[in-house]
Amino acid sequence: MRMNAVRRQDSADHPGVTGTARVGRRTSALVRRLRPGDIAVIDHVDLDRTSAEALVEARAAAVVNLAPSTSGRYPNLGPQVLNAAGVPLIDVAHPDLLNKVTDGDRLRIDGGVIFRDGAELVSGVVLDSSTIAQSMADARTGMGSQLEAFTANAQEFIRRERGLLLDGDGVPEVTTKIAGRPVVVVMKGYDYRADLRGLRLYIKEQKPVLVGVGAGADVLLAAGHKPDLVVGDGETLSDKALRSGAEVVLHHGHGTHPMGEDRFERMGVRAVLFAASGTSEDAAMLLAANRGADPVVAVGSHATLVEFLDKGRSTMASTFITRLRLGPTLVDAKSVQRLYRSPIRTWQVLLVALIGLIAVLVAVAATPVGQPWWQDIQDQLGQLWGQLS
Q1: Which residue ranges make up each domain of the chain?
Q2: What are residue 163's phi and psi, to 5 degrees?
Q3: Is residue 155 predicted with pLDDT exceeding 50?
Q4: Which among 14, 58, 100, 339 is placed 20 to 30 Å from 332, CA to CA?
């Protein structure tokens, strides 16, 4: 396996990967605390591509997963992403390890063995390229049952949120003007960087409402855009996003206390509450659609069945139904890039301008006033050439 650039060896007597442990059950929240060279200790069944890319972006030295990184239900994409980036992934069948390892512990991983303070703590299995390939092949047989579960979850979401889907029941009022305007909803998901780069011209010319979902708000800020709305819970919305001046929509499930509401109050941030099943991505899209957005452009969202299943959560069925609800109003960012590509290139504009300038100079030189001027230019050019030669 290719070694990651941030991996270290204390000495020849202590080989392997050494780093500070960062522990968390929710990978999306954990990556925000990771620093380059840290070892991520997670509890994530069927590690998905988006979470794996976030771990790579955070420059984790290694990932210790206390749950099966591939359970066999379907061919999830996360282990391949880590392997391609050279980040060791170790599966450890020891769920109690979360209680034994705390943030700040110094860990060393040699093969599948994990050490703390020089003592062996637990051993696991290193998922290399051959192991991952075999797991993917085995997991393809589980696609059928997973699809059945996906369908059942979709039916349950329709039953539970019929009023929201059909009549917009529970959609909050926001001060941001949305009706009749295009809306770009940004998630930190699949190909989000390329999608957002491809929309630069569209955003510049159309001035859409920019909505950041969870870490998608940070994606917009990092790209130099100011979000108009941020949607998420207390764990996914950063302090920077909350202080960006955007209107905040705090999404939470039915019958649950809004996560992070007390944190918002301490920061002096007023949030609009939106109680709905499913994900914050669904909430943002339903909010935009019910407030008259046209169109809704999705950045970093899911497009294929494997991508929906790869999230590894029953709530992904809600995203599928939400897409059906929006219908033709919802457009994928990649489609907008293809349709909104400017047919005129910068070099073409410069060439036309140069040709026009030459034409003007020739026309002026042909006039009685311009002939002496043109002759003077020729004489000066001749003198300059003589000096150079």
Answers
A1: 17-139, 161-339, 346-373
A2: -65, -40
A3: yes
A4: 58
